[in-house]
Amino acid sequence: MKNNVSHHKLKLSIKNLLILAVATAPMMAISADEAKTKEVKPQPQAVVAQPAAAEGPSYRNETSFPKIASGKWTGKKLADGQPDISGHWSNTIANHNNFTDPQGGIPNDPAPRRTPLGKREDRAPSRVSDPADGQVPFQPWALEEVKKFQVGFHNPTEPKYVEPLARCAPGGVPKSFYWHGYEIAQYPGYVVFFFNNGTRIIHLDNKPHLPEKIKLWNADSRGHWEGNTLVVDVKNHNGKALFGRSGEFISENGTIQEKYIFSNDGKRYNYEAVFTDPTVYTRPFTVTIPARLWTYEDKPNGWHFEARLATHAGKEPIVEREERICTENNGGFGIGAARPK
Amino acid sequence: MNTAAIKNPSWFKKIGLTLLLLTHVFAFSLVTSNADAHDATKIPRLANGKPDFSGIWQTTSAADYDLEPHSNRKDAPPGPGIVEGGEIPYLPKALEQRKKNFENRATDDPALKGFTLGVPRGIYYPEPFQIFQRARDLNIVHQFGHSVRTIHTNNTEHPEDPNDWWLGDSRGKWEGDTLVVDVKHFNDKTWLDRSGNFHSDALQVVERWKFLDPNTIEYKATLTDAQVFSKPWNISVILHRHREKNFQLIEDYRYTLDYDQYYPPKPDKK
Fold first, then answer.
1. Which of A21, A100, A250, B140 is positioned for an S-S bond with B149, CB 3.0–4.6 A?
2. pLDDT by residue (tens digit) across A253-269?
3. How many other C-beta atoms are found inside a 10 Å radius of the C-beta of residue A2?
4. Considering the domain boundaries, does residue B262 fall inside one?
5. What integer is the mean pLDDT of B36-64?
6. Is the same domain home to B183 and B78?
7. What residues of chain A lie within 8 A of the CB of B256, using their CB?
8. Would you give the DSSP letter of residue A250?
9. Percent of chain B with pLDDT over 90
10. Counting runs of H as helices and runs of E as strands, what totals does chain B give?
11. How many domains, in total, are found in chain A?
12. Is residue A232 situated within a structural domain?
């Protein structure tokens, strides 16, 4: 019998949570300068072990990216009229190590960097594109919590300092967009994101949002197309996923207005979203995340494009994804971890 | 009649009448086919003509309590079971394990832990699942755990010597209007119901999905596992379409419940 990922069997106790958090934090720190990483300790997440040459175009660590204007869609359309943007996508700058300095490594990382960090302006811009300082406009209490998280993350003394993805929680909004590659599939009335960890169903049929009391990791999404732009109204967020290893967050009172602006060649999109939350922020702010399409012409890699070519008698290359079920969802930290004896 | 009409001086009159009659017949047939299109027995289809199972589905059966016939008990309503012939043909050693599982079901059922349900259990588990269908595949999103299973319908084959998966590897083909799916390469971590029926990683499931009417699917499956069962056996359930207004899946990532309380930071808990 083979397993695709290791199966942790840990009892749910704070002690073990901490052991795992402590054990995984330094390993995860390796991916701080992900693109430059050549030697990688064995761990299931976040790191591409292949040399750069095998990875196709070097989109994965862009330091800048093109602006895409909202406007007409002149590309291919599906039978139901939606712009055809189905396929395998991934962000182009970095992972969830650091929300506002995406290529700057995990804040307060005690692990020595393999390469010097260099100047801030040589790295990708903050994912916060407004305000201009690139920082989330936190209220004082929330900023204090974020700073505490950025210290606690490296030596968690409380469960709240364990980044929820390390427990295999869904990536949530917006972290899922810079956590591994993902597939976008389209159906009449729906755009569906099959993320590495979690699934997000965007309803295009104008049905009302779920009742306010229902809060979800991936929130509740209502969308429509305006030309090349998918406009999505996000409510019912439970705020639990955090934005990354730098600890930024939204609360369950927050709402998000998203725009997915696709280039007419169908090869890129920019995610531009306004986050509003009177409980946590002093003003609304804008998040921008660039993404690109991956096709059979790209070599699969273990982070941006976790796919393989299907076995079949025909000649055309068919890309397919494998099952994405985080093992820890099914052991260790889940409900069953506390098995009564 | 036409010949007679030509011989007759007033043939054009009769031709006119014939045309009129034909027109009526034609119009009537149009009405009939139009009625067909709105017939409740006409199943939805994709553009390529294959049955379109898109929608949100759920069984009303008590199958998940116990696949085999059973009387009521404290933790289950009575049920006739859904196993063809009544009983699962366990090998003697496996039957011992099944009995142990039954005794420990209140703690050992993987579903209680929020684990992925597996195949076929996810289909008759009493939570809805949504089918998203294209010509090339069906993606099944289960509300429970929000796990995703892809059934490929593009003439692709099982990968050679792959990993074991929670939901196996599913390859479907059409036999008329029936979708026949071969599923294998499972792990051995899922149960078949909450009474402790189980399988090994040698499980193979062949499913048959067929519309009974536009809002009802007949789901049949044959389970083969030489390590656990003495011969293949069959189950059958009916799946109903959710037709409540604005019905939708509500994600149920229940394995997070034990640590939900720690996130996000709250203003009153500094």
1. B140
2. 999 999 999 999 999 99
3. 11
4. no
5. 88
6. yes
7. 164, 167, 169-170, 217, 240, 334
8. -
9. 79
10. 5, 10
11. 1
12. yes
Instruction: Answer yes or no: do A217 and B251 touch at CB < 8 A.
Output: yes
> Are B16 and B66 within one domain?
no
Count chain A–chain B contacts defined by CB atoms under 8 A: 185
Counting as low any pLDDT under 50, the low residues of chain A are 1-57, 329-341
| B61 Cβ under 8 Å from any chain A Cβ | no
Interatomic CA distance for residues B241 and B268, integer angstroms: 44
Contact call for residues B58 and B130 (beta carbons, < 8 A): no
Task: Let me know if B116 is exposed, middle or buried by CB neighbors in 10 A (0-12, 13-18, 19+).
Answer: buried
For residues A117 and A103, what is the distance between their CA atoms, to the nearest angstrom? 9
pLDDT digits (tens, 9 = 90+) for A129-142: 999 999 999 999 99
Q: Which pLDDT score, from 0 to 100, does residue A60 have?
A: 62
Q: Which one-letter DSSP state was computed for residue A74?
A: -
Q: Could you tell me the CA-to-CA distances from A295 to A12, A245, B10 in Å, in that order? A: 41, 29, 73
Residue A60's nearest CA partner among A307, A292, A300, A297 is A292
Query: What does A123-190 look like in DSSP terms, one character per residue?
Result: SPPPSEEESTT----B-HHHHHHHHHHHHHTTS-SSGGGS-GGGGT----TTGGGGSS-EEEEEETTE
H runs (alpha helix) in chain B = 2-7, 11-37, 92-103, 105-108, 121-124
Question: What's the token pair of residue B45?
Answer: 């289809």
Of the candidates A210, A249, A318, which has its C-beta nearest B264's C-beta? Answer: A249
A contact residues 95-124, partner B, Cβ 8 Å cutoff: none
Q: Is A16 helix (H, G, I), strand (E, B) or coil?
A: helix
Show the domain range for A182: 14-112+123-337
Beta carbons of A137 and A283 less than 8 angstroms apart: yes
Decide if B264 and A251 are in contact by the 8 Å CB cutoff. yes
- Give the end-to-end CA distance of chain A in Å, rounded to a whole number: 27
Q: Give the domain extent around B252.
A: 55-256
Query: CA A185 to CA A71: how far, in whole Å?
Result: 22
**Helix%, strand%, coil% for chain A, nearest 5:** 20, 25, 55
Say how far apart CA A165 and CA A6 lie, in whole Å: 16
Distance, CA of B141 to CA of B153 (rounded, Å): 17
Residue A33 domain-assigned? yes
| Domain match, B66 and B104 both | yes
Same domain, B239 and B162: yes
Q: Does B48 touch chain A (CB under 8 A)?
A: no
Report pLDDT for B4. Answer: 40
Same domain, B85 and B216: yes
Residue A3 is assigned to a structural domain of this protein:
no
Inter-residue contact A242 to A173 (CB < 8 Å): no
User: Residue type at A311?
Assistant: T
Polymer length of chain A: 341
Joined tokens for residue B23 = 């027109």
Element spanning A194, H or E:
strand A190-195
